[in-house]
Design a protein that fits this description.
This protein has ten helices and seven strands. The protein has 256 residues and is an alpha+beta fold. The strands form two sheets. Strands 3-4-5-2-6 form a five-stranded antiparallel sheet. A two-stranded parallel sheet has the order 1-7. The protein is globular, with a radius of gyration of 21 Å. The mean pLDDT is 96.
Length: 256
């Protein structure tokens, strides 16, 4: 018995021989299976404690428009030559150091910031086969141009961070491809388009596969993120054990 958490594309296109992979048949049944958007992440080291910088252990979703769908479509359809010169329409901003109760003991008067957005893989695709850290000036310029725009927008929301930066680096979709094996730099598995949650796709994205003894798990069989992956694991365990573990958990909750 094999349970794969490597994702739908990696499992069916990379780990299984093409002659036995059911992927083409699976994709023909639904329009909901597509690559997700590539993730671009900015990592910032800051001078100052969370008290000094006014940081809290919370996450911020920052949008530039109330019409997020339109703003995001316009952004991802932008030519790469304009990337970084226009506002980034959505950003996830987090301060990981604020969530570590031991942080101040180890790194006094230091803080960290992480900013994430989604970008088209095509902007970075030409460098996907180049060696990490050896992709050249054009690549570095592009990812840092976008990263700097994100940092500028972040500082507009958190003015106390201005001029406190001590470390700055950017990870692109091809960075994700290299380090975590995401085929097109995606952070959240297959795309969360409307068709993904259609009855046909939901029925197709299940732990059981057409190959006897092979099961899928993680966010690709349910939904993205920590909660999606966790409940995907519970679904997979239920399928393997042929037992309703959700019911078991509810009974356990009653007992304790």
């Amino acid at each position: 018995m094999v349970v794969s958490g490597a994702g739908l594309y990696n499992t069916y296109e990379s780990l299984l021989p093409k002659e036995v992979s059911p992927f083409n048949s699976l994709k023909s049944k639904t329009r909901g299976i597509q690559h997700g958007w590539g993730g671009l992440t900015v990592f910032v080291g800051l001078k100052g404690s969370k008290e000094t910088l006014g940081l809290k252990a919370s996450n911020v979703w920052a949008f530039t428009s109330n019409d997020l769908d339109r703003a995001f479509r316009n952004f991802v359809n932008t030519d790469v030559s304009e990337a970084g010169y226009l506002d980034i329409p959505l950003m996830f901003i987090s301060f990981p150091s604020t969530k570590d109760p031991e942080w101040e003991k180890r790194f006094k008067d230091k803080s960290t910031c992480e900013i994430v957005t989604l970008v088209p893989y095509r902007w970075f695709e030409q460098w996907e086969k180049d060696r990490v850290m050896k992709r050249g000036d054009d690549y570095e310029d592009l990812k840092h141009r976008i990263g700097r725009r994100m940092w500028k927008q972040t500082c507009a929301l958190f003015p106390d961070l201005q001029d406190k930066e001590e470390y700055f680096d950017v990870g692109s979709p091809v960075t994700n491809n290299y380090y975590i094996g995401s085929p097109r730099g995606e952070l959240y598995g297959i795309d969360h388009n409307k068709d993904r949650f259609s009855p046909e796709t939901v029925a197709a994205l299940r732990p059981d596969t057409p190959i006897s003894g092979l099961y899928m798990t993680g966010q690709d069989i349910l939904s993205c993120g920590f909660a999606g992956a966790m409940f995907g694991g519970l679904l997979s365990a239920s399928a393997v054990l042929k037992r309703n573990l959700f019911s078991d958990m509810m009974e356990l909750k009653k007992k304790i």
